[in-house]
């Protein structure tokens, strides 16, 4: 198992540091927009000279408060999102001028109605299919323009296409830095832990200067590459190489990612919306900016799209490139799109790729921690 770096910053530490940094930015009069999902085109927020901030959604702490108005048998991510907003225990929500939601699932769509009573929540209507392609892109393009107009009206500004194009170039530069870092998982034997990989990606949302984020990832990538060249290259490892796919795993990071590596697996690939899934495709930098953004964002391979063939095409390519020995799919309870799609994921992984597969359905509580560890241990033993 790869050791964490001496200066490793935990997610909670990065989140706390971000609180203070964001307060200072607000005191300076900066614009702040809260977002939840990777489908939101943050290029428009940057073009408005505003800061997009990822809102709190990965702790069980506020779930009891959320359940006072939401059903208990709802996805923990949704209940945590609303619970944090309701209790005002998320400074990122508190400091946001308004919030951008999206209709990725029925639970979030209805929850945003309640959230709008707490703070203005602008909801983008995401098509539930990429087919027919021309109609889907046109529909999402119109929503992107609607968001641009919302930003202009809210801040009483004008956003030019040149400003959007510059933001596209900057975000593409960030995507390259993120993807290059995540592709360190291709190294054999591995040179960094998947737990570090996932934590650093999630915690990057709390660094608000995009150039600082890029520099941080470029620096860490160079450090890991040097470590592999001097200390790891050519050495043998019998630890199975694991791909983690499925739902966002921020709320189960320790219960799952850390456990996988403590029990003998190496997470080399994280295929979630906080991992490589959203980084591989860049936005076209020429042509119509709204169409370019629509083309990129509608192609994110989340299970909310139906049918979702691009997810399987991408998975197959990544499994080969990262030399994956086993796939573990994380499914949050009541996340129906990922839960239903898991049948096809299992069939694809085991039948077409010939790789063992494990599905873990869980929530943010610690009640099933022992059972999860037992199942992961048995799966890794099978791969040995």
Index terms:
four-stranded parallel β-sheet; single chain; 11% strand; 384 residues; alpha/beta; 8 strands
Kindly report the average pLDDT value.
Answer: 96
Our Rg estimate from Cα atoms comes to 20 Å
**Strand-residue proportion:** 5-15%
Secondary-structure element pattern, one letter each: HEHEHHHEHEHHHHEHEHHEHEH
Number of helices: 15
Strand order of the largest sheet: 2-1-3-4
Count all strands and give the number: 8
Description:
With 384 residues, the protein is α/β, with parallel strands linked by helices. Helix content is 51%, strand content 11%. The protein has 15 helices and eight strands. The strands form two sheets. A four-stranded parallel sheet has the order 2-1-3-4, with helices on both faces. The radius of gyration is 20 Å and the shape is globular.
How are the SSEs placed, and which strands pair?
Layout: H1 11-27, E1 31-35, H2 42-47, E2 50-54, H3 63-66, H4 76-87, H5 91-95, E3 98-102, H6 106-115, E4 121-124, H7 133-155, H8 161-182, H9 194-203, H10 210-232, E5 241-246, H11 253-262, E6 266-271, H12 289-298, H13 309-321, E7 326-332, H14 336-352, E8 357-362, H15 369-383
Parallel strand pairs: 1-2, 1-3, 3-4, 5-6, 5-7, 7-8
Helix pairs in contact: 1-9, 4-6, 7-12, 8-10, 9-11, 11-15
